[in-house]
């Protein structure tokens, strides 16, 4: 890796990320995230605000017992309070107590904040910056200086904003990080101001952006183009208000689209999606389906013409190869599909010998369109679409015949729980199966009865679980006569697959989706034999 092309990645998921509404990391989660970030290859991990709370301080102690490959742990805090000696300042003492190699302090660049928030004088603020940097340097720390509101401060008074950086440099700061704290800047402003700071100071320049104008990643990229060598951000971009610069996108863009490198081992880029998912899990957040690079939809192609293009030349509709960031290409089936979408599904099913222009492909498309007009959607119900293909190709067989079911929901008294029970009669290979299932609701009960009935004949069904269940009402204006669409996700612990059913009766729609789900699994098993 050429030193001059290296951009240092400073992760603040555990500090600025924790300032996001709805996010709190447990002490154990903080350690898990830090270890994962280290394996991923970031350079700095900001573990918390040293003076803020015992949990953040406990993290700094606990992480010392872990062996990290290369990441440095940074403790975060502010410049000393106004009119307090730095040696007597509690926040600065907490930074030293954290006992990290790196201390990151934020100081004020904007006169508005100096006079109206700190309620101090411009000169005292400069002294606070210089004293705190110097004191931390004297105590052997690498000092990263976060110039809070730097761009807003610069717009208000360029002279004062630059003097605040000079104070940090006099104090010995190792890196000047320009912060767009309110997230209001445009990329061109970031480029111009970063260029000016880079040319003026012989110190490394970094960037810290927020996403209030949806420009945090673009702003960080522009800052790097202007010479910043250090980017601060959060995995998945959550953080105060609208969030921080999303490091997932920054790391991918830097590695794949510039001559810069940023991960200790660039091969780690392939773990980007799992890193993103891991952080969301630890932060108790859902994955963002539409997230750039790592979302489920990031490489999902729906429009027929796009699928046609991707099948011919993958980069005709993909800005980077999905596998480069650990993601997968997905082909969706819908009313916008053409023959190319169907071909992809045929290939997935191992049916490689059917021509794109064949009558079978046209017939599959015709059937799919008819079904969609009737309320079916196949985007999330790939397995039902594959069953439909089998039916059109006359390769479908029924593994069982339904003789009948009855579903009952009973509530015996105001405070008694609702009990759901289903009885089911099937004919399986000429033998009669009669089972009863109980469940949390009527569909769960029916699902239980179906699995009990089949597992004697098809043992693999034992492992199939109902993973998700979604209901939509079609034509709601028709009130009770409205159709119901049920989409079910089933899982056998290894794979998940979606199926769909439509009926005026919710139980019947659910049954249809359950049957497709079970048949899909049984076909998969047959194919494996
Ligand atoms: C841009 C950023 O994201 S910076 C990080 C912001 N993060 C956080 O605030 C989360 C952690 N914070 C906390 O736990 C608490 O705010 C603490 C423990 C740090 C401080 O709590 P308190 O002492 O009760 O103060 P409070 O939060 O109400 O006010 C902040 C004080 O810090 C001062 N302050 C703010 N920025 C700075 C600075 N850069 N340098 C010195 N003092 C500062 C304010 O002037 C105010 O001082 P005052 O009490 O004399 O009026
Ligand atoms: C330092 C910081 O978090 C900010 O200015 O946004």
UniProtKB/TrEMBL annotation:
<protein>
    <recommendedName>
        <fullName>Citramalate synthase</fullName>
        <ecNumber>2.3.3.21</ecNumber>
    </recommendedName>
</protein>
<dbReference type="InterPro" id="IPR054691">
    <property type="entry name" value="LeuA/HCS_post-cat"/>
</dbReference>
<dbReference type="InterPro" id="IPR005675">
    <property type="entry name" value="Citramal_synthase"/>
</dbReference>
<comment type="pathway">
    <text>Amino-acid biosynthesis; L-isoleucine biosynthesis; 2-oxobutanoate from pyruvate: step 1/3.</text>
</comment>
<dbReference type="InterPro" id="IPR000891">
    <property type="entry name" value="PYR_CT"/>
</dbReference>
<dbReference type="InterPro" id="IPR013709">
    <property type="entry name" value="2-isopropylmalate_synth_dimer"/>
</dbReference>
<dbReference type="Pfam" id="PF08502">
    <property type="entry name" value="LeuA_dimer"/>
</dbReference>
<keyword id="KW-0028">Amino-acid biosynthesis</keyword>
<keyword id="KW-0808">Transferase</keyword>
<dbReference type="InterPro" id="IPR013785">
    <property type="entry name" value="Aldolase_TIM"/>
</dbReference>
<keyword id="KW-0100">Branched-chain amino acid biosynthesis</keyword>
<keyword id="KW-0412">Isoleucine biosynthesis</keyword>
<dbReference type="Pfam" id="PF22617">
    <property type="entry name" value="HCS_D2"/>
</dbReference>
<feature type="domain" description="Pyruvate carboxyltransferase">
    <location>
        <begin position="7"/>
        <end position="273"/>
    </location>
</feature>
<dbReference type="Pfam" id="PF00682">
    <property type="entry name" value="HMGL-like"/>
</dbReference>
<comment type="similarity">
    <text>Belongs to the alpha-IPM synthase/homocitrate synthase family.</text>
</comment>
<dbReference type="InterPro" id="IPR002034">
    <property type="entry name" value="AIPM/Hcit_synth_CS"/>
</dbReference>
<dbReference type="InterPro" id="IPR036230">
    <property type="entry name" value="LeuA_allosteric_dom_sf"/>
</dbReference>
């Amino acid at each position: 890796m050429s030193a001059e092309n290296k951009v240092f990645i400073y992760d603040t998921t555990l500090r600025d990320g924790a300032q996001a509404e709805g996010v709190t990391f447990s002490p154990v989660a903080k350690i898990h995230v830090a270890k994962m970030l280290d394996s991923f290859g970031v350079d700095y991990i900001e573990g918390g605000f040293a003076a803020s709370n015992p949990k953040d301080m406990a993290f700094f102690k606990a992480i010392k017992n872990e062996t990290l490959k290369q990441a440095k742990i940074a403790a975060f805090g502010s410049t000393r309070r106004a009119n307090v000696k730095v040696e007597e300042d509690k926040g600065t003492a907490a930074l030293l107590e954290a006992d990290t190699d790196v201390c990151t302090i934020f100081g004020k660049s904007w006169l508005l904040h100096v006079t109206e928030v700190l309620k101090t004088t411009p000169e005292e603020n400069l002294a606070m910056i210089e004293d705190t940097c110097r004191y931390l340097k004297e105590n052997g720390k690498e000092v990263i200086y976060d110039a809070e509101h730097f761009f807003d401060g610069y717009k208000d008074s360029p002279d004062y904003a630059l003097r605040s950086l000079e104070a940090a440099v006099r104090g010995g700061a190792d890196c000047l990080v320009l912060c767009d704290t309110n997230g209001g800047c445009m990329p061109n402003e970031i480029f111009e101001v970063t260029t000016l700071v880079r040319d003026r100071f012989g110190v490394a320049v970094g960037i810290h952006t927020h996403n209030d104008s949806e420009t945090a990643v673009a702003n960080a990229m522009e800052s790097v183009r202007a010479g910043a060598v250090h980017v601060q951000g959060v995995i998945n971009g959550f953080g105060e208000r609208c969030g921080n610069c999303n490091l997932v996108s920054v790391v991918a863009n830097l590695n794949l689209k510039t001559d810069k490198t940023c991960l200790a081992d660039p091969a780690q880029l392939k773990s980007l999606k799992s890193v993103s998912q891991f952080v969301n899990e630890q932060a108790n957040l859902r994955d963002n389906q539409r997230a750039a690079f790592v979302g489920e939809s990031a490489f999902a192609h729906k429009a027929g013409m796009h699928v046609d293009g991707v099948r011919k030349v993958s980069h005709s509709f993909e800005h980077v190869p999905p596998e480069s960031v650990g993601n997968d290409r997905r082909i969706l089936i819908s009313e916008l599909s053409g023959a190319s979408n169907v071909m992809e599904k045929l290939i997935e099913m191992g049916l490689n010998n059917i021509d794109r222009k064949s009558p079978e492909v046209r017939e599959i498309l015709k059937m799919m369109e008819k079904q969609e007009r009737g309320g079916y959607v196949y985007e999330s119900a790939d397995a039902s679409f594959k069953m439909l293909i089998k039916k059109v190709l006359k390769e479908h067989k029924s593994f069982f015949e339904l003789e009948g079911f009855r579903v009952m929901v009973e509530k015996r008294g105001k405070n008694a729980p609702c009990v759901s029970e289903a009885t089911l009669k099937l004919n399986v290979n000429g033998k009669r199966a009669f089972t009863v299932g109980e469940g949390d609701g009527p569909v769960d009960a029916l699902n239980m009865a179906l699995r009990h009935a089949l597992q004697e004949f098809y043992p693999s069904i034992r492992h199939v679980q109902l993973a998700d269940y979604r209901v939509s009402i079609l034509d709601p204006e028709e009130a009770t006569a409205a159709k119901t669409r049920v989409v079910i996700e089933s899982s056998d612990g290894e794979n998940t697959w979606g199926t769909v059913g439509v009926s005026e009766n919710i139980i019947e729609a659910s049954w249809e989706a359950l049957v497709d789900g079970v048949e899909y699994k049984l076909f998969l098993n047959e194919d494996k034999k």
